[in-house]
Design brief:
Helix content is 38%, strand content 16%. By secondary structure, the protein is an alpha+beta fold. A hairpin with a 6-residue loop joins strand 18 (447-454) and strand 19. The protein has 18 helices and 19 strands. The protein has helices at residues 2-29, 31-36, 38-48, 88-91, 102-106, 108-111, 119-127, 143-154, 184-187, 191-203, 225-234, 275-281, 284-294, 296-305, 338-345, 355-366, 402-418, 479-494, and strands at residues 56-57, 64-70, 77-80, 94-95, 99-100, 136-139, 160-165, 172-177, 242-244, 248-250, 257-259, 272-274, 371-372, 377-381, 387-390, 395-397, 432-438, 447-454, 461-467. Strands 3-2-1-6-14-15 form a six-stranded mixed beta sheet, with no helix packed on it. It has a five-stranded antiparallel beta sheet with strand order 8-7-19-18-17, with helices on both faces. The protein has a two-stranded antiparallel sheet with strand order 4-5.
Length: 497
């Protein structure tokens, strides 16, 4: 009897060891092969697409930017984008071939019903035999303002990028860049169509999958002078501080010079000019002098406060989707390049940014010197409509004091009232702004910029615009001529005018 029990025990032990070895083999050694097995991949894909993925809504809570519908194919649900190319760089796409991007990726746990907050709902759906449902995310995007930005951009022949944010909350109200693309093509369940569309988009030299509003960097030109002016104010040089006013600035250690636009004197040729007047007239010579006086360390420190990174690709300012904020090099890189300090102070040389970043910079001046973290999503709702997550506004930094912010605001108001930005004037509304005309290559037409906020005393919107390669005017373009009218149109729409 004892022998039989011993044999049974040994047999059970052997079976247990075999089972243990098999489980470990499957989970450790064969895991990669099983995961890559086409049969398993198809099963996982079908499981993923059996979820009724949540909607992406505009700020009004009703305009649908992305949704799911029943499919007649092997995959149960298909993603749809009712707005076509209008919000593509923000929603991203959801493709069974090329995966997810932008909001579809960064909020995937909610949209796919995987977030912990959705577990009760998921269990209820399982018990009741319903398809698993994802949560809805509500964005900060205002459809009417986005449409106004699109119409303003389409009226210009060149490629345009526009950003509009709420300076007090950081809410991204509109963000649009040309060219865009239709994400429905990549969300198709026809693999031939998806791959053909992907190839066509990636072969396009204008790179429509990349947003020029947030994913690419361009020299900001004279719009960067608001950062240089901030550094001057923070270092004790007030709006009425005076500076030499020659026709051109001889740069140290080189034969190169900096000249004003058109090669003229500013302020009628007077020997001295104030900082405020130099900003109003966008005097390159003066701001080159300011840069040399402050030095690279002070400029770099001020740029860091505004969220400029030392190297491209660093995520300094958090955002709800991947993006690239502006770049201003470390002070050490200027040690043997003193002339570069003056050129960088006027937004050229090693400085680069995009309209989303510059809208945040301008907005922080209007917001009393406080820069808000950009926000794209305000809340998440479960399938029954109950709010399960809210995202409150967050401060990012305080790049300048409230007193200096008020002084710089008045300087920017003078740019629009009687300086280079008069094309942005709106009757009955005080607009603060700054123009920019950025050189970016030998023989290339300049990029035309305008950054602004309004109403100046209590801003509700900050708008930044860049028209690449001068738009309609080409090499004759300036920010005041080309970009300022576009910003004015967006501001008017934001203020309900």
């Amino acid at each position: 009897m004892e022998r039989q029990i011993r044999r049974l025990g040994i047999g059970l032990l052997v079976l247990f060891l075999l089972l243990f070895a098999q489980v470990n083999f499957i989970q450790v050694f064969a895991a990669e092969d099983l995961e890559n097995n086409p049969a398993n991949a198809l099963r996982l894909l079908r499981a993923e697409y059996s979820v009724d993925r949540g909607e992406i809504l505009a700020a009004d809570g009703t305009t649908v930017l992305a949704s799911s519908r029943r499919s007649s194919g092997d995959l149960k649900y298909q993603r749809r984008y009712p707005q076509g190319d209008r919000f593509a760089h923000l929603t991203g796409f959801y493709s069974f071939v090329f995966g997810r991007t932008e909001l579809e990726q960064s909020f995937n746990d909610y949209l796919a019903g995987e977030a912990a907050e959705l577990l009760p709902q998921t269990l209820a759906d399982l018990v009741l035999g319903r398809d698993k449902r994802g949560a809805t995310i509500v964005t900060t995007l205002e459809p009417e303002l986005q449409e106004a930005a699109i119409q303003a951009a389409e009226a210009e022949s060149g490629d345009v990028a526009i950003a509009a944010v709420d300076p007090t909350t950081g809410n991204v109200l509109a963000l649009y860049a040309e060219p865009s693309y239709d994400p429905n093509l990549l969300a198709s369940q026809d693999p031939k169509l998806v791959r053909a569309s992907w190839d066509e988009l990636n072969e396009d030299p204008d790179k429509p999958l990349v947003s020029r509003a947030s994913d690419e960097l361009f020299p900001p030109g004279s719009t960067f002078k608001i950062v240089t002016a901030s550094a001057a104010l923070e270092n004790g040089f007030g709006p009425e501080s005076t500076w030499p006013n020659p026709r051109e600035l001889d740069l140290p250690l080189t034969d190169a010079t900096i000249q004003n636009f058109g090669g003229t004197h500013c302020s009628g040729g007077a020997a001295q000019i104030t900082l405020a007047s130099a900003l109003q007239q966008s005097c390159n010579v003066t701001f080159g002098e300011v840069g040399l006086e402050l030095g690279a360390e002070a400029l770099a420190e001020q740029a860091r406060k505004y969220g400029f990174s030392a190297e491209p690709g660093e995520e300094v300012i958090p955002f709800d989707i991947p993006w690239v904020s502006g770049v201003f090099p470390d002070a050490e890189t200027f040690v043997e390049r003193e002339p570069a300090v003056a050129i960088s102070a006027i937004g050229q040389q090693d400085v680069a940014t995009n309209v989303l970043h510059m809208a945040l910079v301008a907005g922080s001046i209007g917001n009393g010197g406080v820069m808000m973290r950009p926000r794209l999503v305000t809340e998440v709702r479960d399938p029954s409509g109950r709010v399960i997550q809210e995202f409150a506004p967050e401060d990012f930094s305080e790049p300048l004091s409230s007193e200096n912010a008020a002084a710089l605001t008045q300087m920017m108001v003078s740019v629009v009232e009687g300086g280079t930005g008069t094309a942005a004037q709106i009757p009955g509304v005080s607009v603060a702004g700054k123009t920019g005309t950025a050189q970016h290559g030998e023989g290339e037409a300049p990029h035309a910029w305008f950054v602004s906020f309004a109403p100046a005393g209590s801003p509700r919107v900050a708008v930044a615009v860049v028209v690449l390669d001068g738009g309609n005017l080409g090499s004759e373009a300036t920010g005041g001529q080309v970009a300022a009218p576009i910003a004015r149109a967006v501001i008017e729409a934001a203020l309900g005018l």
